[in-house]
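Re-run with default settings, no changes from the original entry. Doing this only to confirm the output is reproducible before filing.
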Amino acid sequence: MTEATAPFDVLIVGAGHGGAQAAIALRQRKVDGTIALLGDEPELPYERPPLSKDYLAGDKPFERILIRPAAFWADRAITLLPGRTVVAVDPAAHCVTTADGATIGYRSLIWATGGAPRRLSCAGHDLRGVHGVRTRADVDRMIAELPSVSRVVVVGGGYIGLEAAAVLTRLGKQVTVLEAAPRVLARVAGEPLSAFYEAEHRAHGVDLRTGVTVTAIEGRDGAATGVRLGDGTVVPGEMVVVGIGIVPAVAPLFAAGAEGGNGVTVDAFCRSSLPDVFAIGDCAAHANGFADGAVIRVESVQNANDQATTVARLLSGEAAPYDAVPWFWSNQYDLKLQTVGLSTGYDATVVRGDPATRSFSVVYLRDGAVIALDCVNATRDYVQGRALVVARAVVDPALLADAAVPLKEMLAA
């Protein structure tokens, strides 16, 4: 595609949720300038959460996970630049350079690149059959291999790993999950939720092992055959799915002098330290009020979309700082987990309802105040609990534990 002779008014690098929403929100707010949406994949912008769930399972074709159809972007004069990777940013000249040597100018740059799956560093990490789960191409490769796979080893007991394990089990595969921490979901949830999901996966036939380390991927003829553990045990598997987090894709911004560490540091309006350069979504580190002001990255569709809207508001002349309540979700088997707030730093938990019924919530407290809820098949708690999180409500734990009392009544009390 031939580049425009003049700089784009807004160049968005990264065509995932954050980048797509930034373009959409700019047009919704009547920003009339030229907008380009550049992504390193050849596809139209699409939703990523279904990749490890509905798309992998074959329940949704790719067309059903598109964020918008092709005509949408054309109708709104949003230029799509697919299959491009930005390798350098020149903040003084207000331009980027792509891997194919093209130079693209901008007046405002929105960096929405997310991150790349963190890879194993052990021997055999690059064998055929070892997969991350981040892009359509990643999952298409998995789908193509599945007919010849009977055993799958999932490395990582976070949401991506557990979601993939649930789908692969449903597809008839023998699945082993390996987690280095003493429990699954240790980074994002409390012990009651971890124990519940461990029991659920084991009940569905998953061989789930915690407190184990991976030392090598075993292989033969260039293909994975199993995973070697720290104690010398080899877990057989023709496919290895690695879900151990992401590495923010921010190297060009850092090379250009942007401040940051674990992601690009941005202010309340998602501005980086570089002039006219914004960062949003998984790659942006910001001071979050729901984490007591700690500078963190929030890896969620909610965060990407809300930060995109924050930038669009600023560029349209109606600035409002980012102050959105974090929320997340995960679907595993017939369980719908909905989370509101950030449980980081909790000092107490209250289980609301009976996990044995497969419908309950875990309420997280810090210094007596409600900071987050994990709600399993408990949508009413999720909806009503949001107000408790926003208010930092202090509620008697015994009252919180009484599932017969609606959460909305506790805010009034």
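The chain has a mean pLDDT of 96. The longest strand covers residues 103-111.
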